[in-house]
Amino acid sequence: MKHSLQRLLLATCLLAPPLAQAQNPAGPSAPEAPAARPVAPAPAFPYPIQQKQLANGLNVVTVPFDSPGLASFFLVVRAGSRDEVEPGHTGFAHFFEHVMFRGTDKYSKEKYNDVLKSIGASANANTSLDRTVYHMTGNATMLEKMFEVEADRFQYLKYPEHEFKAEAGAVKGEYTKNSASLYTQLNEKVADAAFDKHTYEHTTMGFFKDVVDMPNQYQYSLTFFDRFYRPEYTTLLVVGDVKAEEVNKLADKYFASWKRGSYKPAIQPEPAQTAPRYVHIQNANFPPMVSLSYKGPAFSDQSKDLPALDVLTTMLFAENSPLYQQLVVKEQKVRFVGGSPNMTRDPYLTSIRASVVKAEDMPYVKEQITKALEDLKSKPIDAKRLADTKSALKYGFLMSLDSPDQIANSLAEFIWLTGNPESLNRYYALYDQVTPADIQAVAKKYFVPEGLTVGTIGPGATGGVQ
């Protein structure tokens, strides 16, 4: 669950500069002119966001964008591995990423693919902790056909048990392939160790024992679909050469009859962690690694904690930072070091990783990272460096919004976090308020030993970093 480059740029942007103060040009002896009203900073997202909610709870979001003849069509389902609450039934959010392409009575898998070809569209899906996203980009003049085929499969998906078993087998194969990576294995071990009650304990792929048993869970799969593939869990997002009136009209035509559900998962909050936890993978043929995962905040567009953590980690691990220069450039003990918080609906992890050249240096590398974090608690960062960092990342964010699918991806993240794409602007408005004192405050609050889970890969029986 690492951030993509776009995610990092998105999560560390700076908004408008400080407001200019009103001046009294008439001088001290003249009556004071009425004070100018503060001008609200420009929104971070530079395009209009137009929303309409249908009576059944489906939110319809349109973003017109100058992309002649091209439109992206996203369906964001706010159901991910977080929502897999019953023991023995993990991995089903990811499973539906696959099975949703199995077809319906009206559009078989083959016919669905033929339609995509006819409108010059490409379609795919992806799943994470908090959501599953289905997306296609194609000919904007064929927008109604996109609506037709997507509304059909979201409301009338049909797969017999033998096809379910085949797809479950494919999911097991994907799990086996991915788990060959020690990075994946470490992610699983860290999540399992860091969480005792919350469903973030399992990764998006699910627990292996559940994936192995998945072919026997056909009836549960129908239950999962019935629970979450409902309009109140879903946002329809269209970006590109479109008008809101057209999008809303088509949404009414194809999605208004979709029946609302009533299910709400009972997700257990995670108890406070009271001591460091450790996991280790013994492997002499893999580059040694140290992973430090601290309990972090849930996403909020009302709190500065997550923006401050984003800025902190960006500055701490930048190539020109003292820590990077020490470990990577001068001492050459580390191949790379980096980290960032995660934007999740519930409190998750701020993760730091370092690939170490020699296993015997793993304790030293951990010590230097934790020392750098401790220094942030007592030594205020330079205000100019803070401003320069936010300013540079602001322009990286804006430059990434250069196509309908990139714009839709940016908005989709805030849709699955809060259900409302306008959270993007509210969240980014917080970045302009982050101060050196805020950086110190979040360092003290989150980078504490009792909230830490350490993961290591190395040749010994333990990581040797306790």
Automatic annotation (TrEMBL):
Keyword Cytoplasm recorded: no
Hydrolase is among the record's keywords: no
InterPro entries: Metalloenz_LuxS/M16, MPP/UQCRC_Complex, Pept_M16_N, Peptidase_M16_C
Domain Peptidase M16 N-terminal: 72-205
SUPFAM superfamilies, A to Z: LuxS/MPP-like metallohydrolase
Sorted UniProt keywords: Signal
TM ranges: none
Domain Peptidase M16 C-terminal: 222-393
Domain of life the protein comes from: Bacteria
Pfam family, one: Peptidase_M16
Stretch forming the signal peptide: 1-22
Family named by the database record: Belongs to the peptidase M16 family.
PANTHER family for this protein: METALLOPROTEASE (PTHR11851), MITOCHONDRIAL-PROCESSING PEPTIDASE SUBUNIT ALPHA (PTHR11851:SF49)
Protein name from the UniProt record: Insulinase family protein
Organism of derivation: Hymenobacter duratus
